[in-house]
């Protein structure tokens, strides 16, 4: 993780980093899962590899999830104590309710975080990899929902957007400047 790449917004309650979300020392990380909740590629694959087979065993008990829904498990071998598995929408051109379903992922993850007393939480850029949601459209939705949740009563004092590349980070930085202020 390149410290020079880190910046904060909203009185340091929102942080932007580039790196591997499985390495972050936060209470909870969010997974960009699919409806089976049984693993896959991308960040989902990385989280399952790092958490170990106990994560898959726990996921098998969850019975899957609908798009826009989020379900919680333990972090097992991860530094994080919780994993919130969010099922983002597959991009189908933007008129199939994708924006609202993506917003639901962030809102539900922040709701679960408050319910479980989570203080710090990190998000990957849900749906913008294999699921094809344009990141320029996804980032402002992510920032708006997390900002809204931080401005309501919550236990969360630190929300981290964990980008996987410098270009993705640049998109989030613009969205944060526009939506969350300095
Ligand atoms: N840390 C942080 N971000 C990551 C990491 C990582 N270790 N690895 C990838 N990313 P994706 P989706 C970024 O494809 O679009 C899976 O098969 C990646 O660069 O992981 O929601 C699931 O099982 C991108 O910015 O998730 C589903 O079937 C972001 O994470 C499907 O993919 C999300 O990309 C979900 O697709």
Automatic annotation (TrEMBL):
<feature type="domain" description="Macro">
    <location>
        <begin position="13"/>
        <end position="142"/>
    </location>
</feature>
<protein>
    <submittedName>
        <fullName>O-acetyl-ADP-ribose deacetylase</fullName>
    </submittedName>
</protein>
<dbReference type="InterPro" id="IPR002589">
    <property type="entry name" value="Macro_dom"/>
</dbReference>
<dbReference type="Pfam" id="PF01661">
    <property type="entry name" value="Macro"/>
</dbReference>
<dbReference type="InterPro" id="IPR043472">
    <property type="entry name" value="Macro_dom-like"/>
</dbReference>
């Amino acid at each position: 993780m390149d410290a020079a790449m880190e910046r904060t917004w909203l009185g340091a309650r929102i942080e932007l980093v580039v790196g591997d979300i499985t390495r972050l020392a936060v209470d909870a990380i969010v997974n960009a899962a699919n409806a089976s909740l049984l693993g896959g590629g991308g960040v989902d694959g990385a989280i399952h590899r790092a958490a170990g087979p106990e994560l898959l065993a726990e996921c098998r008990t969850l019975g899957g999830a609908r798009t826009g829904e989020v379900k919680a498990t333990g972090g097992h071998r991860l530094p994080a104590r919780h994993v919130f598995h969010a099922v983002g929408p597959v991009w189908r051109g933007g008129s199939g309710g994708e924006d609202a379903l993506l917003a639901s992922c962030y809102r539900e993850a922040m709701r679960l975080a408050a319910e479980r007393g989570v203080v710090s939480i990190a998000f990957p850029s849900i749906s913008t990899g294999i699921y094809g949601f344009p990141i320029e459209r996804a980032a402002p939705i992510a920032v708006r929902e997390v900002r809204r949740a931080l401005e309501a009563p919550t236990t969360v004092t630190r929300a981290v957007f964990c980008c996987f590349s410098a270009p993705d980070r640049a998109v989030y930085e613009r969205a944060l400047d526009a939506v969350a202020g300095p």
